[in-house]
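tool_call predict_complex ligand=magnesium ion
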Amino acid sequence: MPSMASNTSDKTKQLNGTKLDFFGRRQKIEQHRKALPIATVEKRLLEEVSKNDILIIVGETGSGKTTQLPQYLFNGGFCRNGGIIGITQPRRVAAVTVAKRVAEECGVALGQKVGYGIRFEDVTSSSTRIKYMTDGLLLREALLDPYLSKYSVIIVDEAHERTVHTDVLLGLLKNVQKTRSLGSSDVVHNGHQKGENGAILEKENDIQSTNILKHNQGKKLSPLKLIIMSASLDAKIFSEYFGGARAVHVQGRQYPVDILYTHQPETDYIDAALITIFQIHLEEGPGDVLVFLTGQEEIESIERLVQERLPKLPESKRKLLVIPIFASLPSEKQMKVFMPAPVGFRKVILATNIAETSVTIPGIKYVIDPGMVKVRTYDASTGIEPLIIVKTSKAQALQRSGRAGREGPGKCYRLYPENEFYKLKDSTTPEIKRCNLSNVILQLKALGIDDIVGFDFIEEPDRMAIIKSMELLFLLGALTDSSKLSEVGHQMARLPLDPIYSKALIVASQFNCLEEMLIVVAMLSVESIFYAPREKLEESRTALRSFSSPEGDHLTLLNVYRASDEFLEKSKLVSSKEKAEKNLRKWCKENFINSRSLKHARDIHSQIRRNAEQMGLRVTSCGDDILLLRRCLAASFFLNAALKQPDGTYRALSSGLMVQIHPSSVLFRMKPECIIFDELVRTNQNYVRNVSRIDFLWLAELAPQCYALQE
Ligand code: ADP
Ligand code: MG
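tool_result ok
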């Protein structure tokens, strides 16, 4: 009718447009869900879960396990009595992005029916029924709720990754499930199931169950369903660990992927990756590119290099969109990888190995794999735990190339010669075999599991690593002479930080400088606050100088944080919060500070400040008393002390290793007599990073348990 047509205002048109689009998106999502390989076996999976208390599900990456199974279970009535379906992920990025996706698929706001929890961030509510979280977070939850009683189903996802948290969780869940299947915590103690692990373990399991019991005697418990999901085709290890548990396989969909190798080994894989990105962009047909890099620094440096080269291409070739994804990227930015590129643009995703199996990014046709990965290693003889960059395993290389063939035939460019592939290790060593166990031991002890050696690990850690990690906890005052958790140890276990950082906060509250230490620890918890692009090295050094403290990097980081805080507060006085934050990003850029890292540090700071306050630690400032703060640093980081040698290098006192101050440190040229450091990085040399000057005599005074009898 004419009258209606004339009534149609622009606003209504807009609304109608939005509505149509909304329906379109929902339909698209429904279509996508139905087309996933896992959708064909929904009914069968529900039956299997009903029949089996422990089920192992193996399925190729991208088949829909992580996003779909929890929804099937929810619809299948597994939350009927208010129980929650918990899904653990080894990586925070996966927990966050998948939760967002599933909330959208369910048509609910994030944090309502579908939510997530990661360290320093809780996006759940009392109505949350599907909760994605990191494996580390569920372990922490066990401290407060030893039976994990709010969960009706727990899915340990990405179990093939074999992170130390996943491994420990499996042991813990095995016990929790046993207890809960008997209905009441009393029963386990008396009627302990005679089991599969032989006489000795059986006895030790008994001790562990008894200890867990102390927390929660006599409570009525409902049974727990346990599902272990893995992308590795070998389910045997999990099945055997759970006493011959049933394993089912979900068929994936994989198109052929052409694998290309270089003729020669590449000396600079960053450069090689950069060249390959442009080669694909200029010579290959449409399709997005996924590049596997080892960390934030590499990703950001390639991001900059691509941006710099783009303007040099002919105008028509500049439609390249670079999108980074790594763990400490703010979560709202992480979702960008899933958005389709604008028409005519090619997306280049620069990712760490989170894109290997944890998250599936649509649209990828080309994969660039330099064959490297950053891993934590542990040397039990020295007690050091450097992050090093090593070659991937064959399994990882295959997972990476597989990412190119999810939606159609693809290509994978391995930046090494073919014969190198055959020399790679078949699979990655589980993290529990190559990490410092002090954090895990602290948590197990806090759960009442005192017999660490007797714990039913899926794969036993080295005895030497256990001993060394216990020694570290003892020196930090977390354990008593009889290896029980001390009062300080209990406090340390409550903080979501590495034991040394937790101890630093506790010590700082005694030194009256907790306000400063909270900032220092938050800043140390993020990667690379400063950046120094090669072509602007001088300018970045000048910028750094305005914050730098002659006492070292810890105080320098404190100065940066405070300066940024001051800037932000001032800015907020005259502009809106959004504008002020935008100004802060500009300020960061001018000062060669990584605004993403700073933002992350600010978030961590507010969280650990809350934790400290909840624990009753006194948050006071030492004001201008720098000496006090330095002494507190010595009292906290004494395990990482080093003394200058006549040749200008340093000897790390607890490990005996020869180390050098990293060139990024403000003390690089100053070379004081005695230092403490935050971490040791091993490249071609042993470097120590985040270094501060201390007085050697303070060590004996403040850490007599370590240094009294030395020298
Ligand atoms: P699996 O766990 O078996 O590897 P997922 O459940 O993670 O599989 O992924 C299933 C599908 O969902 C994939 O095709 C993936 O591209 C898609 N998907 C996952 N997260 C998102 C997202 N945030 N946005 C768009 N698609 C997504
Ligand atoms: Mg998955």
